[in-house]
Amino acid sequence: MAVRCCALLVLTLPLVLLAGPQPGVRPGTADRLATLPVADLLPPAAPSQGFTTCLKAAEQGDAAAQATLASMYYMGEGVPQDSKAAARWYQKAAEGGAADAQTVLAMMQEEGDGVAKDPAQALIWFRKAAQQGDVDAQARLGEKYALGEGASKDLKEARTWLQKAALQGNLGAQSRLGAMCFLGEGAPRDAVAASHWFTLAAQGGDPAAQGCLGVMYAMGDGLPKDPVTAYTLLLQAQAGGNTQAAASFPLVLKSLTPPQLAEALRRFAITQPH
User: Residue 9 in contact with residue 17, Cβ under 8 Å?
Assistant: First the structure.
């Protein structure tokens, strides 16, 4: 049963879990910056005045101001967009110990955005930020060890950092950790733990986790068998962009009675925006 379920689960795993990250699961530099309260760090003045004030503080060695100035350059707020200037100021802020700057600088080095592409240096900055508790850095560091990107593949180390990020609510980390628990990567297979992490990520709207959890409910592996919940989750996964979820539809549909199918469709409809 476990072997069959494992094979079916793999069909629902998108590339983010099997081969590498996909947009939306692994945020880029701009996605990360969109979450930073840049405007809140600036005085209530015109953007150009805010830039001047921030520049003065940054030149005096204020790491927070350096990181904010870098963000302004990167996003083109109050100053023409300049990724190279952004990278220089992120470098200064990162060297001053600012975790946000360390993470963004690592992303830029990883992508070759404003700086030369340097996966090895990116790994160093991700680790420094992760050690300070930055959730994005923890998730990226775990991912790198899981895939062997910029570092030797180390599934135990991957699980360590993914769990730290997962405990902070990172959906991508929760989903990948669930897959590792289910497939027995870095530790013995644990379907109960897998269902726990998939549930958290699925509740947050992660389509990869929704698909995986749907298969687990369909097979009754790690949690009670429930075809209604299984089909609801698979529909949610498909609606969210998990193109592999439909591969498990036949398995679930053959076990649903007409009333159960109607209930699953009702539950699915409730979850969709109107």
Answer: no
Give the closest residue to 216 by CA, choosing from 187, 175, 265, 257: 175
- Residue 109 CA from chain centroid, whole number: 18
- Evaluate whether 165 touches 188 at the Cβ level (below 8 Å): no
SS3 133: coil
Backbone φ and ψ for 44, nearest 5 degrees, come out as: -75, 75
Q: Which amino acid is at 132?
A: Q
- Tokens 């955005």 found at: 113
Among the residues of 169-274, which ranges form H helices? 171-183, 191-203, 207-219, 227-239, 249-253, 258-271
Question: Is residue 167 over pLDDT 90?
Answer: yes
Which residue in 24, 13, 10 sits closest to 170, CA to CA?
24
- Cα 152 to Cα 67, 123, 126, 148, distances in angstroms: 31, 11, 15, 5
What does the alpha-carbon distance between residue 247 and residue 93 come to, in Å, rounded to a whole number? 47
Between CA 75 and CA 79 the distance in angstroms is 9
Tell me the per-residue pLDDT of 47-91, one tens digit each, with 9 for 90 and over: 566 788 888 899 999 999 999 999 999 998 888 899 999 999 999
Tokens coding 23:
């947009």
